[in-house]
Give the backbone structure.
Amino acid sequence: MESVLREACEEARVDPSGAELLRLGSNAVYRLPSAPVIVRIARDPNAATEMERAVQVARWLEAQNYPATRVMPGVRQPVSAGGRVVTFWESVQDREEYATVTELADLLRRLHSLEVPESLRLPSFDPFAKVWSSFEALDGVAADDAAFLEQRARRLGKEYDRLDFVLPYGLVHGDANIGNVLRDHSGQAVIIDLDGVCLAPREWDLILTAIFYDRFGWHDRSEYQGFVHHYGFDIMNWPGYSVLADVRELMMVLWMGRQAGSSEKSAAEFSRRMHALRTGGSRRDWSPF
């Protein structure tokens, strides 16, 4: 990834000196102190279409004066380097400071009210297309674990198809959670990570905050109540909540299974999550990644 970073920075005419790796997930995310700029290198070499759309979405949101991450000006994006897809973003601030779940709710309510231009050509979200593609990327996962997850995915797919969504269908962030809301230099909350912006039932943007509170204990009751009050809808009172929660949880386990073969920490976390799925045990000991 570092060689890709250097090549991409050379094309974008920015200095990669002192680059700091912030996280390594679906993207390798670096901060460049010289700019300051955030560089995101997609781990999927076939992510060009998705990254092009993220750049277009960011520019549209900027035109709407919506508080979201901004692309670095003056660079034609995305950049191709070392067989990877690279994008450059303005750094929100010099250090990561997360906003609150109530601010996340406000951002989502505002985002969901926007009218999307057809020119963006946003895709309709199919969670099970992502689920099944994740099976192809499992790494270091035992055959019986994979079979168990496949059986669970088939069952949940049928249950998902029977869901009766009650919120309007439209623009969603796609990965709305507290980890994707940062404060900028002025203290304003801004939403980041626009790779998954698409069209979907709005419940999809509410489910992570709910299960972070309800299943994992990563938010407390007052935080979740604030989220519900500011957004105006409690997904936990919707009859389809448990199914959607199980689908999102499955995706989290599959994502960890993609890292299990290359990281002892990820392998241990995957094993912990698999045990909870198999036994119906508590998720309170799951670690956020």
